[in-house]
Amino acid sequence: METRLSKDPSYQRLNKGRAIMGNVSYWLAVDHLLLVQVTLAQEQYRRFELRDLELMVVRPNSVRRIAGWVVGILLAIFLGLAGFATFRTVTNPAADEAALAILAAIPAAILGIVWLWILVPGRFCQVRIRTGVQTLFAPGIVRLPKARRFVAAIRAAVEAMPAPLDAHSVAVPAVEPGATEPAPPAP
Amino acid sequence: MRNPDPACPACGRLLPSAPQFLATLTACPNCLADLEIAVFPAFGRGPMVGRTAEKTSGDDEATCFFHPSKKASVPCDRCGRFLCALCDLPFGSEHLCPTCVQAAQKSGGIEGVVRARVRWDIIVWWTVLLPVLVCYFVLPITGLVAAGLAIWGLRRPPSRVARSRFSLIAGMITGLLFAGGGIAAYVALLMNK
């Protein structure tokens, strides 16, 4: 039985994101990228050899702008309602609309948090990873700044890999037929 | 099968396939959707060509177990069968035959071919915590079940990246504490009656 308690030290986590019924994470090793998808209690692995990666296409989309506007308008409505009810309660105590103010302020606070979550971490995007035989939509990488950091880390890892040795990359000094061995240096 | 030329993820039309042009592309030439493309050295290289097995030249040469007419180049590190260059599947420092790789896919014996693993620690924690939220009076039973599952999980291969063994031990201790606490509570109730 293996007694190791800590995670594998050869993997460096690049990204972590949410998925349906679980999460997705990307781990970088010396020669490959490991995509780990956890669904309920099962962990599934996809391995991409760095030498096989051809392209990474990041496509920023307009989800942030549209969602920002929709949530922003709803936030403005609830804030306006809460402000109006508070104003009415303060200026005319007989109206007593404190309950309405609280009822409007609670969704406004929730919408405010959602609005910040949409706007602050950056644009939404989709990432596709292309190898020689497949093109895969990369789940869990949904924000542009994170996607850029992810691509930069992969690029650095690919550049740090040693070049494969093949017949063309190994320079063999040509020897002329009939050429004699050079004389050893005199002692 | 070779992957076809790259296409725009927005409109699906083909993008120019010249690497130097792709690397500088900031938008799709057809639909003008924003794109950021990272081009790696493998792009345009084409599929890697595998090695070919040599034919044997005589009776005094070792031959491949799977291809008797081909020259053996290496023995399988698991079963010891002689393999030709075609049947030799390198996994890290090991050379394996297709049969051993297939067997390892089922048993999870080679890290590189493991496709999925059960996260026993997640099951243990759900078994520990769910009754706390739903029906706390079964805690003595579920705590013991969780401890049993944790012991079972410790005998199984761990997660490749998460600290699943640490989580399993923590879950087992919590389960035992909950079971002990639950049993003590039941005993106290019975004594009071």
Quick synopsis:
Chain A has 187 residues and is an alpha+beta fold.
Tell me about this structure:
The complex is a heterodimer of chains A (187) and B (193). Chain A has 187 residues and is of the alpha+beta class. Chain A has helices at residues 63-91, 98-119, 144-160; strands spanning 12-19, 22-28, 32-39, 42-49, 53-60, 125-131, 135-138. Chain A has 2 domains: 9-61 and 123-160, PH-domain like; 63-117. In chain A, the strands form 2 sheets. In chain A, strands 1-2-3-4 form a 4-stranded antiparallel β-sheet, covered by helices on one side. In chain A, strand 2 and strand 3 form a beta hairpin. Chain B is mainly alpha-helical and 193 residues long. Chain B has 3 domains: 1-48, no CATH class; 49-115, 2-Layer Sandwich (Herpes Virus-1); 120-192. In chain B, helix 3 packs antiparallel against helix 4 and helix 3 (120-133) packs parallel to helix 5 (164-192). Chains A and B meet through strand 3, strand 4, strand 5, strand 6 and helix 3 of A and strand 1, strand 6, helix 3 and helix 5 of B. Strand 5 of chain A pairs antiparallel with strand 1 of chain B.
Features:
heterodimer, A: 187 residues, alpha+beta, PH-domain like, four-stranded antiparallel β-sheet, three-stranded antiparallel β-sheet, 3 helices, disordered C terminus, B: mainly alpha, Herpes Virus-1, 3 domains, two-stranded antiparallel ribbon, 9% strand
Number of domains of chain B: 3
Helix content of chain A: 25-40%
- How would you classify the helix and strand content of chain A by structural class? alpha+beta
Low-confidence stretches of chain B: none
The SSE order of chain B reads HEEEEEHEHHH
Main sheet: strands, sense, barrel of chain B: 2 strands, antiparallel
- State mean pLDDT of chain A (0 to 100 scale): 82
Helix and strand arrangement:
The complex is a heterodimer of chains A (187) and B (193).
Chain A lengths: L11 E8 L2 E7 L3 E8 L2 E8 L3 E8 L2 H29 L6 H22 L5 E7 L3 E4 L5 H17 L27
Antiparallel strand pairs in A: 1-2, 2-3, 3-4, 5-6, 6-7
Chain B lengths: L18 H6 L11 E4 L34 E2 L6 E2 L5 E3 L2 E3 L1 H10 L8 E3 L1 H14 L5 H16 L9 H29 L1
Antiparallel strand pairs in B: 2-3, 4-5
Helix pairs in contact in B: 3-4, 3-5, 4-5
